[in-house]
Here is the input.
Amino acid sequence: MTIKRSNWALPYFIFLLLFVVLPLLLVAVYAFQGSSGGFTFSNISRFFTDKDALGTFAVSLEVAIENTALCLLLGYPAAWILANSKFNRSRVTVVLFILPMWINALMRTLATAELFNTLGIGLGKGTLLFGMVYDYLPFMIYPIYNVLNKMDSSYAEAAEDLGATPWQVFWKVTVPVSKPGIVSGIMMVFMPTMSTFAISEFLTNNKIKLFGTIIQENINSSMWNYGAALALVMLLIIGITSVISGEDGRQKEEGVI
Here is the structure.
C-alpha cells in the first residue's frame, strides 16, 4: 500500500484547525456577540470611542516604532558582520547571538527588571525599551543575516570593478538586496511589540500600558466580548500590515533582481 505524500500533512492540518483556526473563530464570535448573546457591532465601535483604549494604542504604536528602529540600527550591523566573510563567522559567534533565545522570554524580562532594581535604576520607558530591544533584537538579526548570507558576492565585486567605493557598494548593492530581510525583521519585531503586555508590566511596574495589557485586563475582568473585539482589531491591523509589507517586499525584491 502506497502512502501519498499529502497524507503526512494531515496531522499538521488538524493541529492548525484546532489551535489556530478554531481560536480565531472563537475570538471573532465573542467580538461580535453582545451581553445578551445576540449579534452586534457595538464591541468594535466601542474601541473607536474609548479614549483609554485609543490612548493605549497610540502609546503602543510609539513604543513599537522606537523599538523597531533601535533593533534595526543595532541588528543590521550585527547581521552584516555575521554574513561578511572578512570577519570571524565561527559557530561560537553565531551561538552568542542565539544564546538569549534559549532562555524563556519571561525569565529574561524578570532578570532584567531585577538587574535594574539592583542598580537602583527607576523603571520607566527607558527600561522598557531596553528590555524590548534585548528580547526582540535576535528577530531582527536573523532575517537580515539569512538574506545577506545568501547574497551573490559577484554583485559587490561588479560594483567595485566599476569604481564604486565600499560605502557606495554598501548603500547601492548590499542594502537594496537585503530589503526583504529588513521587511521581515521589521514585521517580526513591530507586531509582537504592539501586542505584548508582560514586558511592559514588569519593566515599568505597569506605569506604561501597551495594547496587549488592556486586552489582558478585559479578559481577566470577564469582559470577554470587548477583550475579544480589541484582540480582533489587533489581528486585523497585523493582517493588513502583513499583506502590505509582503507585497512591498516582493516588489522590492523583483526590482533588485
